[in-house]
Amino acid sequence: MKIVIASDSYKGSCSAIEVAKYIERGIRRIYKDSEIVKIPVADGGEGTVDALVIGTKGRYETLEVIGPLGEPVKAQYGIIYDEVAVIEMAAASGITLVDKDKLNPLITTTYGTGQLIKSAMEKGIRKILVGLGGSSTNDAGVGMAQALGFSFKNEYGDEIGFGGGELVNIKEIDDTNIHPLLKETEIIAISDVKNPLYGPSGAAYIFGPQKGADSSMVKKLDNNLRYFGDLIKKYLNKDISNIPGAGAAGGLGAGLIAFCGASIEPGIEKILDILDIDSSIKDADLVITGEGKIDGQSKYGKVPVGVAKRAQRYNVPVIAIVGSVGKGAKDVYDYGINWIYDIINKPMTLNEAIENVGTLIEDAAENVARMYKMKLRSSEEAL
């Protein structure tokens, strides 16, 4: 029997690599000699670099960059096939890099993300994937652009400061000193977010509150993004405001399009193609996928549905082992998932679940294997 494990991470508790390891342990309690293929997967957010570096036997690069609040942080990105860089913007500009009581999208910057892009280009890379999940920022990628040589002047001719609160102070955009390699480099933003730059479903209103913005701050940030969109149209002759995904990562999607000529692609499909997951799935007997919480949003570019769609091509059954089941989870049954199995086996607090996540996943995987074995036996007896 061949079983493919292709799960996302359980955010906040378990990486995709660890999830796959625990699932394998549980399966081997029942199927000791089965062929098990582990493929850690991500959708463009947390875990994207690890998934692609491990899946392609690539390498990591680490450097010190300017973090969200202007302080130095160590950030890592990946290089795969010696010619493609994979960057998670969260590694340099992410929400996990900022203490909860210091979150403030008026001042957080994407400058460090620009430094990662610059580093990759200077290593000879001419194709860069940028995952847009997990940001602490709302600066529309202006910080990123500053790191790449763009200059944003205020009314006095001085460079503006960091953060979404500074966008309204931009009076001039100067591209005289942009990095010479930028025009030679293809940049692809990967994200499952389809939000526009501003408005009721834009970056500030939808994602601002989780980054520390109160209602008055959200309104200010949204107005600043609107001003920025008009500015880009005036100076660069690009209408970026309503492009799906422009609002991803606090408007970094828009900034990558405007300043780097980037395209935005669905994260899960791009990643599954790079990992060539079809070659592993096509002759499998069973695929096990999962994520921390499966719900109605999972059908919009999340890992379990992305994996299940690939398995559907080859009529391979798919079981999702998940941390929890939320509202609308049954929608995923329309996309190739045959069964959802929740790891929580008794009443417990969130902290208890996190502390025991490994054991819970292993036990869940064992139960899944037992039930699958029983199903096979029943089918054989019916014949």
Structural write-up:
The protein is α/β, with parallel strands linked by helices. The chain has helices spanning 16-28, 48-56, 90-93, 111-122, 142-147, 203-207, 215-236, 248-260, 267-274, 277-281, 303-312, 350-355, 357-382; strands at 2-5, 35-38, 59-66, 72-80, 84-88, 127-131, 151-153, 172-174, 186-190, 263-265, 286-289, 293-294, 318-322, 324-325, 339-342. The strands form four sheets. A six-stranded mixed beta sheet has the order 3-4-5-6-9-10, sandwiched between helices. The longest helix is centred in the C-terminal third of the chain and has 26 residues, at 357-382. It is elongated.
Question: What is the strand and helix layout of this fold?
Answer:
Blueprint: E1 2-5, H1 16-28, E2 35-38, H2 48-56, E3 59-66, E4 72-80, E5 84-88, H3 90-93, H4 111-122, E6 127-131, H5 142-147, E7 151-153, E8 172-174, E9 186-190, H6 203-207, H7 215-236, H8 248-260, E10 263-265, H9 267-274, H10 277-281, E11 286-289, E12 293-294, H11 303-312, E13 318-322, E14 324-325, E15 339-342, H12 350-355, H13 357-382
Parallel strand pairs: 1-2, 1-11, 5-6, 6-9, 9-10, 11-13, 12-14, 13-15
Antiparallel strand pairs: 3-4, 4-5, 7-8
Helix pairs in contact: 1-13
Helix content: 25-40%
Order of adjacent strands in the largest pleated sheet: 3-4-5-6-9-10
Q: Span between N and C termini? A: 19 Å
CATH architecture of the largest domain: Alpha-Beta Complex
Number of domain units: 2
The CATH superfamily of the largest domain is identified as Glycerate kinase, domain 2
How do the helices and strands follow one another from N- to C-terminus? EHEHEEEHHEHEEEHHHEHHEEHEEEHH
CATH structural fold name of the largest domain: Glycerate kinase, domain 2
Task: Just give the CATH class of the largest domain.
Answer: Alpha Beta
Low-confidence parts, pLDDT < 50 over ≥5 residues?
Answer: none
Rg to the nearest angstrom?
22 Å
Mean of residue pLDDT values:
94
Tell me the overall shape. elongated
- Portion in strands: 15-25%
Class of secondary structure makeup: alpha/beta
Please work out how many helical segments DSSP would assign: 13
**Biggest sheet layout:** 6 strands, mixed
